[in-house]
Automatic annotation (TrEMBL):
First-listed, main subcellular location of the protein, grouped into a coarse class: membrane
Lineage: Bacteria, Bacillati, Bacillota, Clostridia, Eubacteriales
GO biological process: proteolysis
Protein species of origin: Butyricicoccus pullicaecorum 1.2
UniProt membrane topology term: Multi-pass membrane protein
Keywords assigned by UniProt, alphabetized: Hydrolase, Membrane, Metalloprotease, Protease, Transmembrane, Transmembrane helix, Zinc
CC terms in the record's Gene Ontology section: membrane
Residue runs in coiled coils: none
Location within or outside the cell: Membrane
Protein name (database record): RIP metalloprotease RseP
UniProt entry tagged with the keyword Signal: no
Keyword Transmembrane helix: yes
Transmembrane segment boundaries: 6-24, 93-118, 270-289, 318-337
Residue span(s) of domain Peptidase M50: 11-331
Single GO MF annotation: metalloendopeptidase activity
Amino acid sequence: MLANIFWIVIALLGFGLLIMAHEFGHCIAAKRGGVQVDEFWIGMGPKLLQKQVGETTYCLCLLPIGGACVMSGEDQESDNPRAFGNAKWLTRFIILVAGVVMNFILGFVILLCLSWNIQQEAVPVIAQFAEGFSSQGEQGLMEGDRILKIDGYRIFTGSDVSEGLRRGASDGKFDFVLERDGQKIQVNGVELANDLDLGDGRKGYGLYFEVEDLTLTGHLRYALVLAVNDIRMVWHSLGDLITGAVGVDQLSGPVGVVAVTAQTAQAGALPFWSLLAFISINLGVMNLLPIPGLDGGRILFLLVEGIRRKPLDRKLEGYVNLAGLCALFALILYVTGQDIMRLL
C-alpha cells in the first residue's frame, strides 16, 4: 500500500512538473512583455506557502496537479496600461503560445537526455531480408533501399516502419516511396504480412535494417524525430477520435494519466521519463486546439482580432471561454468516472 502511494506521489510530481513548465512559459513571457502578473501558482487547492515578490504573489499549493499564471485584465476590460488586454497584439500572441512552446521544449530536452543511453540507431535502409521473404526484386523491395514513405506515412527511423505498416493498407498491399541508387521511386502493391517465421517462435515482416552509431548531431536529430513521432501519435489519435475509430469512453483523464504514470514509474526511470516527454508534448498539442478555454481558443480569438484589426468584445470572449471551460470540465468529469470504473 505504501509502495503504491509512493509511486502515485512520484507520478503526481511528474505531472505537476509539466503543468508548472507550461505556466512558467506564460509567466516569463508576460513579464518580459511588460504585462502585470498578479499571481503564479504551483499546484492547485489549499495554499501551503505564499510569498509576495514585487507585484506577483507566488503560491505553493497542496495538490501538485496543476498551476496558473494570473495576469491582470485577461478576460475583462481594464484601465491598467500593463493589463494583458491592453498589451500589443504580438506581445499577447507570444504570451499565449509560450506555454505550449515550453511543453515542446521540455519534451524535447527529456528525449535528448534519454537519447544518451542509446549509442546506435536503426535507420530505414534495408540491410537484408528474412528467409522466405517474397516481395523482392525490381517490382518489390531490394537491399539498400531507403524507405521514405509507406502509404503516405513518413518514415524517419527503422522503428517507424512498423507503425507505418500498422497504419497502412488493411489488405496487406502497401505503396512504398523509396530511395534507390540515389533516386526516389515509388513501388506500389508490395505484399507484406506480419506472419513470417523469424525463429524462436517470433513472427514479423522479415525486414532487417542497417544500424548507425549516434554522433552529437545524431543525438539531436534522434531526439527531434522522437518528438515529431510523439506529435504525430497525438494527431493521429485525435483523428481516430473524430472519425469514431476511438470512442470517447477510451479517453483518460487525470486519474487515468496518473495511474498509468505511476505504473510506468515502477518499470524504471527510462520508461517513466519517456512517458513524461510524451505527455508534455501531448499537452502542447492539445493546448493548441482551437477550443474555447484552451490556449488555442484564445489564440484563435487573437487571430480573428488581427484580421479584423480591432479588438473583440472582451465580455463576449470571456463568456465563450467560460463556456468552453465548463464543457472541458464536464468532459474531464466523464473521463475521470471512466478511469475510476476501469481501476475498480
